[in-house]
Amino acid sequence: MSRTFEVAPGDAVHPGDPVIVDRYTTGARINHWITAASLVLLALSGLALFHPRLFFLTSLFGGGSTTRMIHPWIGVVLFFSFLGLFFRFWKLNLWKREDGTWMARLRDVLTAHDEKLPEVGKYNAGQKLVFWLMSVLIIVLIASGLVIWQEYFAQYTTVEQKRIAVLVHAIAAIVIICVWIVHVYAAIWVRGTISAMTRGKVTGGWAWRHHRRWLKELVTGKT
Amino acid sequence: MFPPIANPKAEAITPKFGEQDLIRRSASSITPAAKRQTEVAKLIDVSKCIGCKACQVACLEWNNLIEEVGINVGVYENPHDLTPNTWTLMRYTEWENPESGNLEWLIRKDGCMHCEDPGCLKACPAPGAIVQYSNGIVDFVKDNCIGCGYCVKGCPFNIPRISKVDHKAYKCTLCSDRVAVGQGPACQKACPTQAIVFGTKDEMKQWADKRIKDLKSRGYQNAGLYDPPGVGGTHVMYVLQHADKPQLYAGLPDNPAISPIVELWKGLTKYAGLTAIGAFAAIGFLHHIVSGANRVSDEDERNAKRLAGGSTK
Ligand code: HEM
Ligand code: SF4
Ligand code: SF4
């Protein structure tokens, strides 16, 4: 009996040169890219209203009024799309003992001394942190977003509640954009990662280097 | 009696103020007009108002507005609140004065106060959707409005209303079109008791002083002018019989000011927010330059092959 706590449905190892590891199913990838596109569009349309210097971004959406109109609807898409990702990924993002060790050695993470880090499963502590921050922030953003959605929800709240909501929404938006930058940067910096979300596959060497426990469980789980 | 404003002459008059007289423009940095025009003001003397709503009708009439036929729920307010079509609304309060034992009928004409420091303009994200002229008039420019409702959150008096039809913000313009050609606002013109008068802000303050003296001589010890300093003063002012208790008048704020939440949202959050985003991007960039890419080595691939090849077929 092998423990396969770190393996998601669809994950598989294909021996060869190099070894190829299936990391994301087509469904998961489509789900991810819908979420990614909505988040980027939300950031652009939101920032357009956030600061006068960025108001020119409204031209990407066909003017100020359409930007105002379309932004909350993209938010609804993001919410449901992320909900899909949440149910796919939450289990493997639960916090484990080695995650604390990993975070404590952030210096080694950033200097690429992967050999000094504990063996991690499908997700490392940084990825888990991004996952949970995104989850919480999207809930905060949809909740505050509905309160300030003038067209349909204006009558349900007081002006004072709307003031608080718009402040919370703006702050949460900034934080989620920063989290997004970390997420995208990590995917670029750690070479070999992006193919996980484009083709669904990574090389065995990538899995060995960054998610060794996941790879080991995949291999032993198969015997 | 305050000398009435003469009727206009028949020939066309060039507007006395326009684009060149702006001192504030929403979401834009402009150099304010070098010379300020004389500040204007509308003075609403609550003690003289008989609640006839002539002003409300004149406003609809002049601005070509049509209000929906509403429902009578047994109150004098009609409609029940300001709407995108009702830019001014008479609000009626029945108050038993504990000192005199009299029942007083306090009737306040609600509408935009034309704040010297307008919260609506501060909150507005659309360049030029809200402007302030150097004579003090705060005006909404429909073509630039995107209908977001931020002005509603910015206003300390709960004035702007967003239309469900064209998704634009509406409120009293202080009849900027009439004032530009030397006329007073339509409401002022229609008022049969001169409870509404219009002129320069100084004139209005002087006139208010007279009215307040008169009211005091009639026993209204706390009569006074409502020109709240929290918003830098307003260009619509009230003479109140009980200026110590503005709240009595259908919830007129005692000490209005732009909400600290709005100040925080439009102040620190903007600068700190953009700085944070820029810092995260810059740190990522620098990190990549300093540490280079994190690449998978050949050894990693060999290790994977040993592991995978050794146990799978
Ligand atoms: C999740 C559902 C979301 C909903 C329902 C929503 C709704 C809204 C609404 C109603 C507004 C006011 C402007 C308008 O009416 O369009 C707004 C503003 C804004 N939103 Fe969202 N939003 C959501 C998600 C997001 C996300 C994910 C981001 C960032 C990536 C974001 C960033 C912003 C920003 C920066 C503003 C401008 C705030 C300001 O002016 O200070 N929103 N949002
Ligand atoms: S709704 Fe108000 S805040 Fe928004 S653009 Fe129009 S005037 Fe400006
Ligand atoms: S009363 Fe409200 S809408 Fe009128 S100028 Fe002041 S802040 Fe703007």
Can you give a write-up of this model?
The complex is a heterodimer of chains A (223) and B (313). Chain A is built from 10 helices and 3 strands, in the order ββααααααααβαα. Chain A is mainly alpha-helical and 223 residues long. Chain A has a 3-stranded antiparallel beta sheet. In chain A, α1 (26-50) packs antiparallel against α2, α5 packs antiparallel against α7 (159-189) and α9 (204-210) packs across α10 (212-222). The longest helix of chain A is centred in the C-terminal third of the chain and has 31 residues, at 159-189. The N and C termini of chain A lie close together (10 Å). The mean pLDDT of chain A is 95. Chain B has 2 domains: 19-244, Alpha-Beta Plaits, CATH 3.30.70.20; 264-308, no CATH class. The longest helix of chain B has 24 residues, at 268-291. Chain B is elongated and about 100 Å long. By secondary structure, chain B is of the alpha+beta class. Chain B has helices spanning 54-62, 119-123, 150-154, 176-179, 186-190, 201-217, 260-266, 268-291, 298-311; strands at residues 22-25, 40-45, 88-96, 103-111, 130-133, 138-140, 161-162, 169-170, 196-200, 224-226, 236-240. At the A-B interface, α2, α7, α9 and α10 of A face α3, α7, α8 and α9 of B. Bound molecules: protoporphyrin IX containing FE and iron/sulfur cluster (2 copies). One iron/sulfur cluster (SF4) binds at residues 26, 123-124, 126, 129-130, 140, 145-151, 160, 162, 169 of chain B. The site of one iron/sulfur cluster (SF4) has 17 residues of chain B, from α3.
